[in-house]
Structure formats: C-alpha cells, structure tokens
Amino acid sequence: xxxxxxxxxxxxxxxxxxxxxxxxxxxxxxxxxxxxxxxxxxxxxxxxxxxxxxxxxxxxxxxxxxxxxxxxxxxxxxxxxxxxxxxxxxxxxxxxxxxxxxxxxxxxxxxxxxxxxxxxxxxxxxxxxxxxxxxxxxxxxxxxxxxxxxxxxxxxxxxxxxxxxxxxxxxxxxxxxxxxxxxxxxxxxxxxxxxxxxxxxxxxxxxxxxxxxxxxxxxxxxxxxxxxxxxxxxxxxxxxxxxxxxxxxxxxxxxxx
Length: 257
What we know:
The chain is α+β, with helices and mostly antiparallel strands. It has helices at about 5-20, 95-100, 105-125, 130-135, 135-150, 170-210, 215-230, 245-255; strands at about 25, 30-35, 40, 50, 55-65, 65-75, 85-95, 155-165. It folds into 3 domains: about 1-65, no CATH class; about 65-165, Tetrahydropterin Synthase, Chain A; about 175-250, no CATH class. The longest helix has about 45 residues, at about 170-210. The strands form 3 sheets. Strands 3-2-5 form a 3-stranded antiparallel beta sheet. Strands 6-7-8 form a 3-stranded antiparallel beta sheet, with helices on one face. A two-stranded antiparallel sheet has the order 1-4.
C-alpha cells in the first residue's frame, strides 16, 4: 500500500510522477512556445520530446501545416456600381510561432476576418469585366495584400482563390444580350471579309481570262464535265455572251417596229 511505504519512497514516487507528467511530445509539424513565469522563452521547442515544468511553464502548441480558411459570401460593389456576391478560399501557414502567439490573440480568427475585409476592399476597386476575366490577377493582388498585413503575425499567405461570383438576374440577362450582340458583330465582319476576298479573287480571275481568251473556253468545258457528272440527263450548250447582241440586232432588222 502507498501509505505503508516509507516517506522517502513516497517522495521519490511523487518526483517520478511529476517528471513523467512534464514530458510532452510534439509531432514533426508542431512547434511549442513555452512561457516560463509569464515570460516567453527565446527558442521554439520541438519536434520530439520536450519538458514542460508545470506550473512554472505553460506550453502553447502551434501547427506549421497549411491552414485552409473558407471566406464566406461577401456583398461587393464593384467600381462600375454592380453588386455581386463573392466568396473565396485562403491558404496560409505559420512561419514564426512566437509572433503568432504574442502579436495576435487568435491568429485563425484574425486572418479570417482580415480576408473578408480585404476581399471587399480589393474587389471594390475593379470593374465587373475585370472580375470575370482577370481572375488570376485579382487572386495575386489579394494574396499580396493579405501577406503584407499578416506578416507581423508570423503568418505566410501562400494562395488566395476567388471561388464563385454570383451576379443578379438582370445583370446575367444583360451580359447574355451583350455576348449575343458581340457574336453577331463578329459574324457580320467575317461575312464581309469573305465577300471582299471573293471579290478580289474574281477580279484576279477576270484579269487572267481577259489576257487569255482560251481560258474562258476551258472553263466552259470544265463546267460541262461537272454538270454531266451530277445530272446526266441534262445537256448544256454554252453560248458566248458576244452572240447575244448580234442576235438581238438581227431580230430587230427582221421585225421592224
């Protein structure tokens, strides 16, 4: 029995139990900040086995892994006065555990709140078209601003991604009409360019035929071959255009008015 042991053995047992309780194990991704009599020690502890002599020492564990913070939907008014709902995701990690403990009460909550306010302020400086088309540029700007603001807390922002942009129904219809009008404009331009190129090629062909009259006869023969392959029951006789005025004059002489 414990009470039947001599006092020296009891004291030794108490000391052993106390030393065992002072042993703490930190994982590879963890670091410990120890406060001794209220003052923080200059060096971070871990990973591995460390000793925390309670109640003189107090251990604060921090993880060095990348943390993920979901930034909830924020109502943002863009520079061109369009109201949108935007949410994002933030990735960061602790690089200086001492500052993360000493400079801010709760670095997770503080970083989340800072990300929300930064999202509204940065997106309020861009137009809607830039928000929809230049997503990578906006993400980089958000990361730069948040990294500068959280650096005094010993936090490194590794990436910021805007996840979704919810537009009002009226704006969605307006964007659809704009896209449809843009496609029609491109179609008309392409059609006009095709007509222009066809006219240039026809002018070049007429210029060649004018120099070589035999080319027109060869074209007639090629047309006959193509028609004969498609419609064998059709017989086509090419008539030179120069004969039409002569026939018209002959008819006028035979049948005077």
